[in-house]
Amino acid sequence: MNINKKQKLQTPGSRRRLVTALGITGWLFKGVLSVFTAAFLIMAAAGLILYAAVKPELDKCREIAYDKLAQMDRSDFSMLSDTVIYDKDGKQIGLINAGHYQYMDINHISMNLQNGYIAQEDRRFKNHNGVDWIATFRAGLALIKHGGEVTQGGSTITQQVIKNTYLTQERTFTRKIVEILLAPELEKKYSKADIMEFYCNTNFYGHRCYGVEAASLYYFGKHAEDLAPEEAAVLIGISNSPSAYDPVSHPDASKNKRDDVLKSMNEVGYLSNEDYEKAVSSPLKIVQKETEGTDENYQSSYAIHCAALELMKMDGFEFQYTFDNKEDYTLYSERYTAAYSEQSDRIRAGGFQIYTSLDSGLQAVLQTQIDASLSGFTELQENGKFALQGAGVIVDNKTNYVTAIVGGRGAEDPFNRAYLSARQPGSTIKPLIDYGPAFDTGEYYPTRMVNDHKWEKGPSNSGRRYFGNVTVREALNRSLNTVAWQILEDIGIDFGLSYLGEMEFQKLSYVDNQVPSLSIGGFTNGVRVVDMAKGYSTLANGGVYNDRTCIVKILHEKESELTKDMTPFAKQVYRSDSAFMLTDVLKGTFTSPYGTGRGLGLENDMPAAGKTGTTNSSKDTWFCGYTPYYTAAVWVGYDIPRNMPGIYGATYAGKIWKNVMDEIHQGLPPLDWEQPDTVERRADETNGIEDYFSTTAQFRAQQSLHEKEQAALLEELTQEAEAFCAREIRSVEDTYAVKDEYASITSRLPLLDDGEQRALLLEQTEQRYDYFVSIISQMGDEIRRHEEQKAAEEKKAREEAAKEAEKQRLEEDKATKKNSFLLALETVEELEYQREDAERLVNDAIDKLSLIAGDPEADALSDRLQTAISRISTLPTAEEWEKLQAQEAEQEAKKEQEAQLEIQSSQARLRSSLSRERFKWNNMEYYGPGGRGDE
What we know:
Blueprint: H1 2-70, E1 83-86, E2 92-96, H2 111-121, H3 133-145, H4 157-166, H5 173-189, H6 192-202, H7 212-220, H8 229-240, H9 251-268, H10 273-281, H11 298-314, H12 326-348, E3 352-356, H13 360-373, E4 388-396, E5 402-406, H14 417-420, H15 430-441, E6 449-452, E7 468-471, H16 472-478, H17 481-491, H18 493-502, H19 529-540, E8 544-546, E9 551-556, E10 560-561, E11 570-572, H20 576-591, E12 609-614, E13 620-626, E14 630-638, H21 649-664, E15 679-683, E16 690-694, H22 697-726, H23 732-748, H24 755-776, H25 780-829, H26 838-848, H27 858-872, H28 878-918
Parallel strand pairs: 1-3
Antiparallel strand pairs: 1-2, 3-9, 4-5, 4-14, 6-7, 8-11, 9-10, 12-13, 13-14, 15-16
Helix pairs in contact: 1-5, 2-8, 2-9, 4-5, 4-6, 8-9, 9-10, 11-12, 13-21, 15-17, 15-18, 15-20, 16-20, 22-23, 22-24, 23-24, 25-26, 25-27
């Protein structure tokens, strides 16, 4: 009874608490529901906006995916074909083995390799449907976190098979979406085992190894099914980046990557701890088992090089040829090496057809002439190659293509010196870096006079001969080093060097900057034969450089024609009038009596221009020359430079050039260069020599001179402004110096053309001067005292100067009086007879004796006068003097008469001898039978 009552009494309170709890819960539920609803609506709206934005790109991706899916075939997952190189006629000139390829089915691929790939690259491979959304989401977060920079991948093995087989290697969101769309379809069509099989057979493992079987044989000398865990891990690392993890070139990096893969396998459970420790502790053993492949020749190696450059260009690589400093050079070299290696590896991986401009007929001519001309040099290096080598390049000036390239003696030597080697060019560089740029300034022209002389710390001429004032034409034809040096220093070393950069010369270094020896070929690394040929071809084409190499087109079996949008880039490097005048001067190499290439002119009076080049001790010898049809550059020297006494650019290199050019010009009519409208032929107003002149040279010379003056003024004002801003006021004297410097800078700033620089320097100077003014205003008393002291010192100095001047005037007056007396005294002393005016002369001297009163020498001079007076009485009278003079004259006349009589006697004797000898001249009868006879 009591219990029920209690329960009844408690029921209303419990109910109220229950209602309250339910009310709170309902309120919270509604709140949460509202938040979720709002969030859902916001996300839906954002999704719709995002979808609308990406829909066009998504539709494009679907189209790409559909096209790939519609054409998908199992054969797609086998190896690319060999890369083939063709000459201009479509004839195969080279084949790059794409990897000694063998397709292996999954049953013959080691589980260590399969498991290693899964552990390292796609741990959910066996479970996902082609896309690992967790990994993709993680990669997306990393992408956002790092501001759009790709720091980790999210691709599955399935996606990588698609990328390797159907897509390009470019990193774009379009490619990623296509991967995601295709991956599930690929997994519907093929099993996981098939996909792993495709993956292992389509990866590139470096060293021309395409597919896991070729890689296993090359690196370890065993089949893919026999790979141990540590060996499989090495291959997995290589396929990730063949260049970076190459165990031959980078063993440490390869081993670190191997160990990373093994760690992944251990973490997943594919390797026990014991097997992991064993594998990690094993040394890196590489066999490098070579199989038969195709040896590269000079044509194919150069074609691959040029194709790699073209692919880099298409990929957006920015090439650079001159460098500001070491850091600039180093950073570029690293970028270039990485990009070049990537494209070179891609070409060697197969699938390319490279069509070139290389002419096998011209190639044979060039190779034959180099081999034949150097055949007398049989010395071999330790590697079996000829010690003395040669290289040459031919450019077709009409198309701007390289048509022939020979990298050494004999076709068996794989090292192509024509583009791989850099050598000192000697004087062949002068037209390109010295004279061409100098002509462009307008300050130099063929008849301009330059002084050829030897000066300290300057170069010497060949033969140590110097010719004084010579024309620019003569200086280049004689190849005078001192003149080239002067010209480059005058126009600016980096200005001349920039022309080589414009013509895409490789091998230039930051160390070459501001080095005057560049004027005569003294480079840090040297230059390539192919670059010299392209440089001279630029002169042959009126100063226009064209960046064509030997690549006509590049096809890829999975990407069709890669170069369909490739267009040659041409630019005016040298002015057309400069190129014409320089070409005319270089004709003198063959035709001038002092040309260094005399005897190398071409047959059939074919107009040609060229230049010899010989470095110190003839370590490198060159000849570069051209006609309107072809340009050829030839180098002869030793791989390891050494002296070649008696060999010059005009000997072997020059003769090879002539023989090649004569042969390839057979049947071509003589053709000369057309004179530009901006060139006229007239007499030089300064020396009267007739030659070619640019009609715009005077204007350009004035402009060039003004630019030099402006550059010098800017440098001078910049240095003065920097010094002005760095100085401090430490004394009153400094206040005067500050005012003078300020006035000097500000008075010359208006002369500066560059308004931006002028304003900057003025602002810096004014700011610093305002600072100085504030200091000077606090030094009023100090400055006043200093000026008073300075005024007193100046007054005292003026008084002392006046006294010194008065003293000097007195001394000069005494000296004048003394000289007057001495002149009168010497006149008396020099009397030769008793002249009628002797008494007057003596009285004059006596009167002037008073002028030396007080002189320390007065008494001695008075005694001299007394002696002179006493001497007069001993002199002959005037009549005696005249008689004596007459006698002397009579004696001289008698001697002259006797000498004349003696001469007349000799003349008579000689004429008698002439009469006797003249009978014998041209009179063979005098000698009788047998004639005169020889001594």
